[in-house]
UniProtKB/TrEMBL annotation:
CDD domains: VOC. It comes from Sphingobacterium siyangense. Residues 2-121 form the VOC domain. This is VOC domain-containing protein. The lineage of its organism: Bacteria, Pseudomonadati, Bacteroidota, Sphingobacteriia, Sphingobacteriales. It holds the Pfam family Glyoxalase. It comes from the Bacteria.
Length: 127
């Protein structure tokens, strides 16, 4: 079985598209009037960006405590490169510099209320 997609609810679809395409390697497949977009990573995994306006709400969506999505990188250098690209973006809140955490190396940041983890894959590395 293979994961097909994840649906993330955001307030600003266009800024989410910018984040996932410019900094996380996703390609935009469809943008439906900035209310919903579909993005793909390496042709295998789809990310559906669902605008909160489609839920007939205008505020930032809430996610449960500790809910987050994570993206593995091959090594510490790749983690640091992503950190350096996004740390000064006005639409993200970075929780700290990349560091050793649990059995890996990485960092967390927020887009709106969504927590995102960037880390080295601990299952295929020396961690």
């Amino acid at each position: 079985m293979e994961l097909n997609h994840i649906n993330l609810v955001v307030k600003d679809v266009d800024i989410a598209i910018k984040l996932f395409s410019a900094h996380l390697g996703f390609e935009l497949i469809a943008n439906r009037d900035s209310k919903m977009a579909v993005m793909q990573n390496n042709g295998t995994f789809a990310l559906v960006i669902w605008g909160q306006v489609m839920n007939k709400e205008e505020n930032f969506p809430d996610y449960p405590a500790n809910f987050h999505i994570g993206f593995y990188q091959d090594n510490e250098t790749e983690v640091i490169q992503i950190y350096e690209k996004i740390r000064d973006e006005e639409y993200v809140r970075v929780k700290g510099k990349p560091k050793k955490m649990r059995k890996t190396f990485g960092f967390y940041f927020y887009f709106e209320n969504l927590m995102i983890e960037i880390s080295v894959n601990p299952f295929i590395s020396e961690y």
